[in-house]
Amino acid sequence: MMNDYYTHLRKGVNWMRHNRDKISTSGHATDMFTDWTIDYPQERQSDNRPYFLYPAYNAPH
């Protein structure tokens, strides 16, 4: 879990990943995860295989 949902750091370490690659992004983590969730079906539009998409938000409510 992140300590800061804007810098995406925990104890000064960036734990944001895309697969195994460390990524640096800006914005609130929940907003970024939502944007990625919306984009994913559009990216897979030409792929006819089924997929399961479960956005698990980690910021407290």
Short recap of the structure:
It is built from one helix and four strands; from the N terminus they run ββββα. The model has no long low-confidence stretch (mean pLDDT 86).
| Helix-and-strand structural type | alpha+beta
The gyration radius over C-alpha positions equals: 13 Å
Proportion of β residues? 5-15%
Shape: elongated
Helix content: 10-25%
In DSSP terms, counting alpha (H) and pi (I) runs of 4 or more, how many helices?
1
SSE order: EEEEH
Alpha-carbon distance between the two ends: 14 Å
Mean pLDDT rating: 86
Number of strands: 4
Quaternary organisation of the protein chains: single chain
Low-confidence stretches: none
Strand order across the largest sheet: 1-2
Characterization of the model:
This protein has 61 residues and is α+β, with helices and mostly antiparallel strands. It has a domain at 9-43. It has one helix and four strands. It has one helix at residues 29-43, and strands at residues 9-10, 13-14, 17-18, 21-22. The strands form two sheets. The protein has a two-stranded antiparallel ribbon with strand order 1-2. The chain has a two-stranded antiparallel sheet with strand order 3-4. The two termini are 14 Å apart. The model has no long low-confidence stretch (mean pLDDT 86).
